[in-house]
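Q: How do we represent a protein-ligand complex in a form that can be generated cell by cell?
A: Start from the inputs.
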Amino acid sequence: MKIAITGHKRGIGQEFYKQLGVMGHQLVGISRSDGENIMRTMHTASLIEPCDMLINNATSMYAQTELLFEIWHRWQSSEDTHHIWNISTAVCGWDVDREIEGLTMRESMQYRNRKTSLELAHKQLQAQPSKIKMKLIRPKSVKTQEFINSPDSVTAEEYVRAVLKDHYAETLE
Ligand SMILES: NC(=O)c1ccc[n+]([C@@H]2O[C@H](COP(=O)([O-])OP(=O)(O)OC[C@H]3O[C@@H](n4cnc5c(N)ncnc54)[C@H](OP(=O)(O)O)[C@@H]3O)[C@@H](O)[C@H]2O)c1
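Then emit the C-alpha cells for the protein with NAP bound:
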C-alpha cells in the first residue's frame, strides 16, 4: 500500500514512518524539514492524492482539517478504497477547557478548538456516502517534542505499535 504520512520527521509520525516502512509499505513523508508544509493545502493534497492512505498527523493552525476536506473530496469519486487516519487528541474528550501542561490557557483552548474542528470534519465526512474508510485516533500522552511529558506518558514507539496492533489488520491487509 502507498501511504502518505504528514509530520514524519519526529514523534508519532516518525514512528508510523519507521514501523510501516518495516512492514514493506511504500511511504510518502511530508514535513517542513523536507521543504513541504501542510499549510499549503492544494500542493500537499497533490502529493497525497496518488496514495491509498493518509495518516493525517501533523498539526498547524487549521491545516489538518483543511487537508482532510481537500483529500477526502479528491478521493470521493474514486472506484478504489482509500483510508484516512486522523490523529486528534484525548483533550477532545474533555467536557471543559483546562490548561494542557506546557501551554497557556489561551494556547490550550486554541489547540482544543483546532482538534475539535478536525473531529467535526471527520464526523461530517463519515456521514457522507463514499468508499473512504476513516479512523479517528486520540493519543493521550506520548513522549515527543510537542508535549511536556507526564508520568503516564508512553514512548512514540510503544504508542504507534499499539495503534497498529488495534487497527492494522482491518485497514492494511
Ligand atoms: N505527543 C502527544 O502527547 C500527543 C497527544 C495528543 C495528540 N497528539 C497529536 O499527534 C500528532 C503528532 O504529534 P507529535 O507529538 O508526534 O509532534 P512532534 O513530535 O512535534 O512532531 C511533529 C511533526 O510534524 C511536522 N510538522 C509540524 N508542522 C508541520 C507543517 N506545517 N507541515 C508539515 N509538517 C509539519 C514536524 O516536522 P517538521 O518540523 O520537519 O515540519 C514533525 O515531523 C499531532 O497532531 C498532535 O496534536 C500528540
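The longest helix spans residues 105-126. The chain has five helices and seven strands.
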